[in-house]
Amino acid sequence: MSKITAIEITHHRLPLDPPFKASWDGRARRNFDATIVRVRDDEGREGIGSGDLMKGFEGHEDLFIGEDPRHLERHYEVISHIGFHYGRCWPLDLALWDLAGKITEEPVWRMLGGRSDRVRLYASSGVLREPEALADQAERYIDEGFPAMKVRFSSSAGGRDGWRADVKALETVRSRVGDRLELMVDCNQGWRMPWDTSMAWTFKDALAVAKELERLGAYWMEEPLHRADRKGMRDLRAATSVRIAGGEMTREIDAFRDIIEDRALDIIQPDVALVGGITGCRRLVYQAREAGVGFTPHSWTNGIGVLANAHLTAGVGEAPWLEYPYDNPEWSSERRDYPMTSALAHQKGWLVLGGQPGLGISLDEERLKATRIG
Questions:
Q1: Do the Cβ atoms of 296 and 324 come closer than 8 Å?
Q2: Is 72:47 a contact under the CB 8 Å cutoff?
Q3: Which of 282, 335, 299, 280 shows the shortest CA–CA distance to 51?
Q4: What does the DSSP assignment read for 73-121?
Q5: Residue 348, by phi and psi: left (phi above 0), alpha (psi -120 to 50) or beta?
Q6: From the centroid of its chain, how far is CA 92?
Q7: Taking CA 360 as the corner, what is the angle to CA 10 and CA 370, rounded to the nearest 5 degrees?
Q8: Which of 70, 121, 223, 243 can pair with 324 through a Cys bridge, CB separation 3.0 to 4.6 Å?
Q9: How far apart are CA 324 and CA 344, in angstroms?
Q10: Structure pTM?
C-alpha cells in the first residue's frame, strides 16, 4: 500500500514586462505568482497541484503523512475542515489526484469516468481592448479554430466608460464575426479586488445590459450582479433569454448546492483549484446535471489549473466548452504556463489530454528554481 511521506509547498513569481492589465483589476499586474504543491509517496512518486496560496496549511502535514494517497474522499474531508479554519488548500486535492493516477497508471479523466480524453475550449480574453482591436482578436481566435470567445466588460475605474461603451465594443465584434463565433460576456460584477470600492450593478443595470446582450446573441452573461444577490440573479434568469453564469469565486461547495437548488444560475463555474478540488467539484457536476443547470469551470489560474479542470470536465462533465485563458500578447500561453516544461497547446480549439498517468504535468524545475520566492 502506497503511503504519503512528504508534502512540499513552494511559491514562485514571474516578472511581467510589459505588465498585464486585467479587465477586472484597476492595477496593472507586474508579476504572476504561482504556488506549487507536491505530495510524495514511499515509492518515490510525486503528485503535483497548483492554485491558491495554501495559507494555513503549515502544521497540518501530519494529518496526511502515512495515509494512502488514494483515499481521496478522506483527504477531501480534512482539506475542507482546514479551509473552514484557514485558507483554501484545494491545490493539495489536485496533487493527490495526480499522485493517485500515477499509482494506478491511469489519467485522471479516465479515473473520473472516462467520458472523453479531450475538451472543447472557449478563448477567454482578459484585456479591455479598443473595439476594432477586440474584433481583430476575435478574428484571430476564429483562425485558430476556437468556437467561442469570452469578452470582458469593465469592472472599475480605468476601464471603458460604463457598460454602454462595453456594449459598443461587443457590437463591433459581433458585426465583424457574424455567427462564426459564439460570444459570452463576463460582466465582472460578482467580486472586487481589495482596493476596488466601486459598487456592483443594480438589478435594473443588469437587466438593461441583458436586453442588449439578447440583441447581440450573447450565449451567457457572467457575474452580472454581486455574488451574494442570489434572488437578483434568479429574477434576472426569468427576465432574459441570455443564460446567467457565475460562481467562479464561490468559496464553499454547499453554497453551490444552494445555488443549484434555488435555480439562481443557468451555468455554475466552480474552479477545482479554488473550491472543492476535483473531489468536491465532481459532486457539483452530478447535482447540476440532475437539476438541469449547466457546468463550465472557471480556470483562470495557470496551466496546472487548466489541466485539472479539463480532466474533470472530460472525465465526468458535459460542458460545451472549458475556459482557456489566452489573450496574446499580454496573456500568452508561455506566461500562463511558466511552471511547466512546455505551455499547453490547443488543437483547433480542443485540448487533448491523452493517456499519461495523473494530470499529465511536467514541471520546469530550472524555471521554478529561478522564480522561487518562498
A1: no
A2: no
A3: 299
A4: HHHHHHHHHHHHHS---THHHHHHHHHHHHHHT-BHHHHTT-S-SEEEE
A5: left
A6: 16
A7: 30
A8: 121
A9: 10
A10: 0.97
d(CA 156, CA 119): 33
Please return the burial class of 161, using the count of CB atoms within 10 Å of its CB with bins 0-12, 13-18 and 19+.
exposed
Q: Name the pairing type of β-strands 267-268 and 29-41.
A: unpaired
Q: Which fold has domain 4-105?
A: Enolase-like; domain 1 (3.30.390)
Q: CATH 3.30.390.10 occupies which residues in the chain? A: 4-105
Cell (9 digits) for 129: 481592448
Confirm if 124 and 99 have CB atoms less than 8 A apart.
Answer: no
Under CATH, what is the fold of the domain 111-352?
TIM Barrel (3.20.20)
Reading phi first (left if > 0) and then psi (alpha if -120 to 50, else beta), residue 247 is in: left
List phi, psi (to 5°) of 241.
-85, -10
**Residues 273-319: pLDDT tens digits?**
999 999 999 999 999 999 999 999 999 999 999 999 999 999 997 89
Q: Are 308 and 4 in contact (CB under 8 A)?
A: no
Query: Measuring CA to CA, how many Å separate 160 from each of 104, 163, 165?
Result: 51, 8, 6
DSSP-assigned letters across all residues of 231-297: HHHHHHHHH-SSEEEE-TT---HHHHHHHHHHT--SEE---TTTTTHHHHHHHHHHHHHHHT-EE--
Residues carrying CATH 3.20.20.120, the chain: 111-352
- pLDDT of amino acid 194: 92
Which residue is it, cell 496551466?
303
Backbone angles phi, psi at 85, to 5 degrees: -85, -25
pLDDT tens by residue, 170-196: 999 999 999 999 999 999 999 999 999
C-alpha pair distances (Å), 253 with each of 261, 265, 281, 316: 13, 15, 8, 17
Q: Are 311 and 108 in contact (CB under 8 A)?
A: yes
CA 369 to chain centre: 26
